[in-house]
Design a protein that fits this description.
The chain is about 35% helix and about 15% strand. With about 80 residues, it is α+β, with helices and mostly antiparallel strands. The chain binds zinc ion.
Length: about 80
């Protein structure tokens, strides 16, 4: 299972769950940020990234289907 990635608020420090455990508990506020890579070990939440790609693909598909096809004569009846 892919590690979860957390980014410290108002900081560029990014840690995965393993590094947080190893170096934590770290003070401050940590927000889940699945698109970042761990600053220490470089781990990334590949599951979340894949999911995000699937979502944007689906949105793109939806957007294309919503566009009227100007070459389709049915739009000009
Ligand atoms: Zn790490």
């Amino acid at each position: 299972m892919a590690p979860k990635i957390f980014r410290m608020s108002r900081s560029t420090l990014v840690l995965c769950t393993d590094c947080l455990k190893e170096h934590g508990p770290a003070p401050g506020r940590w927000d889940e940020d699945p698109l970042q890579e761990c600053s220490i070990c470089g781990a990334c939440d590949s599951d979340a990234q894949e999911e995000m790609n699937n979502i944007s693909d689906a949105l793109q598909q939806q957007w294309e289907e919503d566009q009227p096809d100007l070459n389709d004569p049915r739009d000009f009846k």
